[in-house]
Specification:
Blueprint (H helix, E strand, L loop, with lengths): L3 E12 L2 E12 L3 E5 L6 H8 L7 E6 L12 E4 L11 H11 L7 H7 L15 H13 L5 E5 L7 H16 L3 E6 L2 H7 L2 E6 L2 E7 H5 L4 E5 L3 H8 L5 E7 L2 E6 L5 H10 L6 E5 L3 H9 L1
Parallel strand pairs: 3-7, 3-8, 5-6, 6-7
Antiparallel strand pairs: 1-2, 1-4, 8-9, 10-12, 10-13, 11-12
Helix pairs in contact: 4-5
């Protein structure tokens, strides 16, 4: 039986006449990695701020772990809304020791956490000597120091170079494989596709789509076809029921099928009407294309 980690009911947040979040609802289940995806200004950070008690909602409510309040469950949640202010002259180890003291964690497993985020070799190096990617890994380590059940990350790869981005993504995947529930806000489709199991798409404070990432973002394939007599082919396509739409593009025809139908079925239907195709190519729609269509 799935455990509900976070239940959000009709959250709204107004800043004067600006509606940053509008009637937002969702359910976060244990052990999954959720991506809250949307353009800048879509309400992602506002949502995370509300459920972490940093921002007050204008309307709606939320509950953690089957109905409990945030205050009773803060120790079960690790959050990174912005890069923490580490002491530049202290080592990675000493900085995490300070974090553990602030969070009142007894016997923190600092070495274990540093090893997990790939910083064990640099545990005695000063924070000021770290690259941006290493600083972000230490920031994530600071959220893991209390061994939380849930990890909340807001734009975790923002500002990193390609190597730093790859490192942080691997780290998030490894955290998910340990059974942690992760809620990640991002405006990058590639980031969400690579690390998340589920996605919630926001635009202008409203939910556009939500569900399994591949169900939401897979899109419909386009089938490119051609025949010796393109006009005759166009005419018979009008009578084939499995076709949703088609259009002529140069010397070929681009066809979209109704959900559940295949290119093989299209080829058979055209052949049964007396035309042999000289060209058939299935063009897979990229997740990025589907995302941009959803938020238009």
């Amino acid at each position: 039986m799935e455990q509900t980690i976070l239940q959000i009911n009709s959250l709204s947040k107004n800043y004067g006449s600006v509606k940053a979040l509008s009637d937002f609802s969702c359910k976060i289940e244990a052990g999954k990695t959720y991506g809250i995806l949307g353009p800048n200004g879509s309400g992602k950070t506002t949502t995370l701020g509300i459920v972490l008690g940093v921002i007050n909602a204008s309307e709606g409510n939320y509950s953690w772990f089957g109905g409990s309040t945030l205050n009773k469950n803060k120790h079960r949640i690790g959050a990174l809304l912005e890069t923490p202010n580490f002491y530049p002259y202290l080592s990675a180890y000493k900085n995490l020791d300070v974090v553990a003291a602030i969070k009142q964690i007894t016997n923190p497993k600092i070495d274990e956490v540093l090893d997990f985020v790939g910083l064990e070799k640099w545990k005695n190096a000063a924070f000021k000597s770290f690259s941006l990617g290493m600083k972000q890994r230490l920031a994530i380590a600071s959220t893991l120091i209390a061994d939380p059940e849930v990890l909340i990350l807001d734009e975790p790869t923002n500002g990193l170079d390609p190597e730093g981005i790859a490192d942080v993504r691997k780290l998030i995947t490894a955290i998910g494989q340990k059974g942690k529930t992760i809620i990640l806000a991002s405006h990058l489709i590639d980031e969400v596709e690579k690390v998340c199991t589920d996605v919630i798409i926001l635009k202008s404070g409203k939910t556009i789509e939500s569900g399994s990432i591949y169900e939401v973002l897979k899109g419909d394939d386009t089938i490119e076809i051609a025949a010796d007599d393109l006009n005759s082919l166009s005419n018979i396509l009008k009578s084939i029921s499995i076709i949703k739409s088609f259009k002529k593009v140069n010397d070929k025809i681009s066809v979209s099928l109704n959900k559940g139908n295949t290119a093989a079925e299209l080829n058979k239907a055209i052949f049964e009407k007396g035309i042999v195709l000289s060209h058939l190519f299935v063009k897979k729609k990229k997740l990025e294309e589907q995302f941009l269509e959803l938020i238009k």
